[in-house]
Amino acid sequence: MSDDIHEVFAVCYATHSRKRSENYIFGDPHDEMTSISYYVWVIKGPHGTFVCDTGFDEAAAKERSRTIIHPVGEGLKALGVQPDKVDHVIATHMHWDHAGNYDLFPNARYHIQDTEMAYATGRCMCHQTLRIPFSESDVLAMVRKVFAYRVEFHDGVEELAPGITVHKIGGHSKGLQCVRVKRGTVVIASDCCHLYSHLDEGRVFPITYSVGDTLEGYKTLKKLATSRHHVVPGHDPDVLKIYPAVNTGMENWIVRLDVAPKV
Ligand SMILES: [Zn+2]
Ligand SMILES: [Zn+2]
To answer: Could you give the CA distance from residue 57 to residue 153 in angstroms, rounded to a whole number?
Structure first.
C-alpha cells in the first residue's frame, strides 16, 4: 500500500426521526417524516488509525431524544479498532452529536481548529440560539484535554499525515472542518453538509453560524473531492445504501468509503 492511501469507513451509531422540514432553513414543501443518521468515521493507514468525531453516549441520547443503535465503541471494535489504542481523534466541530464520549479515547491526541475552540468557549455561547448544539460537559472535557497537552490546534488547511488533510469550512459551526483522505480523494464532510440534498440543491440546515460560509463550503467540498460522490455528508442515511457493508451482518451499520459507491 502506498504511503498516502488509506481505508476509510463510516460507522453509523444512532438515528433520529423528524419532519423533513426540520432539515432546511425555509422548511420543505413535503412535510412527511424522514430520518437522519449519526456517524463517526475511521481512517486506517500506514500512519495509524484516525477516528473522526466521537459521537454521543446513552445519557446524551436520552437527554436529546435520539436512539442509539450501536454504541460508538461497539462499532469501532467491530472494525478491529480498540478505542484506548487510538492515537488521533479529529474533531470536525464541537456540537454535542460529534464531541461526546469524551472519555472513550484516553490515549488520543485531538485535532481541532483554533476557531472552533474559541467559538465554543467565547462570547457566542452567551446566546441561547448559538449554544443549543453544544454541551457544556463536552466543551469542558476538551478544555481539560488542552491543559493535559492532548490537543493539536489547526488553522485553515493542515496535513495530519501524508494523504490526510483538514480544511476549515465554518458555516454550520464557526470552526467546522472537513477531512480529505486520499483514495481517489474522499472528503468526510461531517456537518459541512448534513445531507446530499443540501449539497445538490444549495439548501442549508437550520442550525448555522453563517449561511454564506455554509454555501461557499459546498463549493470547497466539491473542489476537494474527486467527484460529488466522493463527498460524504454528516447525517445522510443514504451513505449506508450507497457504500458497501464491510462484512455480512454490518449492513446499515458500517460501510467502506474507500471503494467506488453504488451510484
Ligand atoms: Zn453539527
Ligand atoms: Zn451533526
So the answer is: 25
Q: Which amino acid is at 99?
A: A
pTM for the model stands at 0.92
Amino acid identity, position 249: G
172 φψ region: left (φ > 0), alpha (ψ -120 to 50), beta (else): alpha
- Between the CA of 191 and the centroid of ligand 2 the distance, in Å, is 5
- Cα(162) to ligand 2 centroid in Å equals 27
C-alpha cell at 186: 474522499
How many A from CA of 62 to the centre of ligand 1? 18
Q: Is 114 helix (H, G, I), strand (E, B) or coil?
A: helix
pLDDT tens per residue, range 238-260: 999 999 999 999 999 999 998 88
> How does pLDDT run across 156-210, given as a tens digit for each residue?
999 999 999 999 999 999 999 999 998 778 999 999 999 999 999 999 999 999 9
Query: What ranges make up the beta strands (E) of the chain?
Result: 7-19, 33-45, 48-52, 67-68, 88-90, 109-113, 151-154, 157-161, 164-168, 177-182, 185-190, 231-233, 254-256
Say which ligand is closest to the CA of 236: 2
